[in-house]
Amino acid sequence: MFQPYPLFVGLRYSLAREHSFFVSFITWVSLLGVAVGVMALITVLSVMNGFESELRGRLLSVSADAVLGLGGAPLPDWQRSIAQLQGAPGLTGAAPYLDTDAMLSRSPAMSAAVIRGIDPALETTVSEIGGSMREGKLSDLTPGSNGIVLGRSLAYQLEVGLGDSVTAMIPGGGKGSDEADAIVPRLQSFEVVGIFEVGLQDHDSVLALVNLADGEALRGLPGPTGIRLKFDDVLKAPALARVAAARLHPSLEVRDWTQENQAYFRAIRIEKTMMGLILLLVVAVAVFNIVATLVMVVNDKRTDIAILRTLGMSPRGVLAVFMTQGVLIGWIGTALGVILGLSLSLNVDVIVPFLEQTFNFHIMDPDVYYIPGIPSETHATDVVLIALAALVLTFVATIYPALRASQTEPADALRYD
After folding, report:
1. β-pairing, 186-196 with 147-151?
2. For 148, phi and psi rounded to 5 degrees?
3. Each residue of 281-314: pLDDT tens digit?
4. Domain boundaries, the chain
5. Range 300-306 contact pairs with CB under 8 angstroms and sequence separation of 24 or more
6. Structural contact between residues 309 and 318, judged by C-beta atoms closer than 8 angstroms
7. pTM, 2 dp
8. pLDDT of 125-151, one tens digit each?
9. 354 and 52 Cβ atoms separated by less than 8 Å
């Protein structure tokens, strides 16, 4: 279809200056519309990828890549299990843990919390909690000391600091003396020896850490309820966790970070999909402009079409002439959009501070948001898919006007000229 002569004529029509002002204006609007739509898609999806990576990093700074457990039952001989896991593909760390739902109180404040028993020496191999300590050290959690490390928001709610004591209350298994069926809660006093902040409300306002031995004593269990695993590639963790678990008892349950935090990432995927569809409408509007432009060009060039047909050009050749015009607009617009989009997305860390300093405002106010800047992470796959989608849409937009041009009858077009 796209032989040299139809291609030459199509390029000649696209680059000619004899178009009416209105047709030329619509052509430029179409080209810029495609460019702006592609640029917006690349930039917005890159920023959303950046936020997703930032969120994943903050979640996994405290959470492990995967967890092995027996459905809440204590693990017998967990030291041996960790030893057997050594050498598993991609495994960089393993540590025991024991989670307990509790109420923490210091009169008059009270707050719900998850008390996690950990081994401070092994915990640093599976999480970055040690680097998130704002006061105290993780190593201060010694066995039998009844020390506790609180998230910053949780400490704020309880109005406590280093050296203060808090009371942990969990459901007990004993019966009260007054009522035979009453459940007596277990109470234990802990001293605050540290405060951490990972920048994620779900952790900072809920999580409290104690030594594993103290957690076992609080729960009355002979061991931890699970083993947390860390891998060198977090994206391969779901598969690697199952390979590692095969070294242990087959009854162990395996849960990875995608299952533990699936609500977060499902929400991000839905938001990215909807945002992509909304911004794709910008490209769609530009595509409609291409259709309008080509229809007006076809009406304006009816005489030229008739002459070309009289000189022997086939309807297929006429079709190629006008498809060339539409495809050229789409290609230039897409290329311009990709260049602008990559320029923005790869320099967000420079552009945003410049805009904030120039106009004296904060896009992400550090007093309000845990993430003070706007992260950006450009994926080549996203760029390619966006460019292909724009090219396909602009190509499809040329079909109807080009078909109308190819169906022009020379006699009818020249009858009144």
Report:
1. parallel
2. -140, 140
3. 878 887 887 887 778 777 777 777 777 777 777 7
4. 4-57+264-414, 66-257
5. 300/19, 300/20, 300/23, 301/13, 301/405, 302/408, 302/413, 303/413, 303/414, 303/417, 305/405, 305/408, 305/410, 305/413, 306/408, 306/409, 306/410, 306/411, 306/413, 306/414
6. yes
7. 0.68
8. 888 888 888 999 988 899 988 999 999
9. no
